[in-house]
Amino acid sequence: MNSQFWEMTENEISSAILDSAITVHRKLGPGLLEKTYEECLYYELFQKGLKVEKQKPLPLVYKEAKLEVGYRIDLLVENKVIVEIKAVENINDVHLAQTLTYLRLSERKLGLLINFNVALLKNGYKRVVNNL
Predict the structure, then answer these.
(1) d(CA 29, CA 115)
(2) pTM of the entire structure?
(3) Is residue 4 part of a domain?
(4) How far apart are CA 65 and CA 62, in angstroms?
(5) Helix 10-28, helix 34-47: angle, nearest 10
(6) Domain count within the chain
(7) With 85 labelled, which of 1, 33, 58, 70 sits at a CA distance of 20 to 30 A?
(8) Average pLDDT of span 89-103
(9) Any domain includes 68
(10) pLDDT for residue 3 is more than 50
(11) In whole angstroms, what is the distance from residue 69 CA to residue 46 CA?
(12) Is 61's pLDDT higher than 50?
């Protein structure tokens, strides 16, 4: 799957991300630090030929001022899909709000909130959609 030959849709990208996340989770299991899962997921996506950026700074534009306030996207895949990685007991409303805020600030449509601290990864992710 090399993205150089065609432009992938958000849904195609999210499928590739989830496949890679499942691979990482099967190999490592739950209980590790978020940074570990981030690095391994980055590696898997990079190996698939996808363009992936880690810890991408996300400025806040307030009126005409561009403010560097420390927001960082865990992974940005193909410049379209935001991935927020967690290793927590449960995904809660704050995590969803964070992902949606990142989508709005970056003017992107789709985010994946992935919690690796679960027995089965299919129970640990949420698609977050920004209706722009």
Answers:
(1) 11
(2) 0.91
(3) no
(4) 5
(5) 120
(6) 1
(7) 1
(8) 95
(9) yes
(10) no
(11) 28
(12) yes
